Amino acid sequence: MINEKCKTEFKQTECYNKYQKKQESGGYMYQRPQKQIKQTQNKIKVTKPLKRTAIKKKFKIDEEYENFRREVWQRDAKCDPPKNGIVKDWRKFCTFWICLTQQERLKFLESVNGNEWMLNTIQVAHIKPKGAHADLKYDPNNAVLCNFYAHSLLDTHKDPITKLDITKEQREEWFKRMLNIHKTEKEKEELLRWI
Length: 195
Known about the structure:
The chain has helices spanning about 10-25, 65-75, 95-100, 100-110, 150-155, 170-180, 185-190; strands spanning about 30, 35-40, 45, 55, 120-125, 145. With about 200 residues, it is α+β, with helices and mostly antiparallel strands.
């Protein structure tokens, strides 16, 4: 289970669909309208707002991020990124899947158990977190393609196969394995210096 709030597969699917729609529309948040105070003939009446109103956040379209994303997709998948990262055959694009042994693949598919819908979304996963390493946010050498399920587990320092807690070093080991896919020896040396 990825999210403690959404314990059933249906709720997780609905939650993810809302998230996707929110991202497509540029994101939004709700704000409760202010309470209004009315004064009539020596009486003060406070009216409660009837409903929440949606306020659109204004996100800049980050062209630099789109170029970065395109570079990672070109390097790892040899194609342009699909809209929202949703693909038909995720196994061809996910560097996490490609780096696994046959036995690890079987264990991984068992651990997914009900969250298969998360596998079809391929995301650009940062090796060094972009919050702590803002200077590496747009560096293609600091990213790999990974399915949404494994990416979310790795970001929360969980083993993608066993779902057990892992250390920072173990997380970096997973990314080292992913970086070694499709690379020449020279490229491997160049990429491993980021870890």
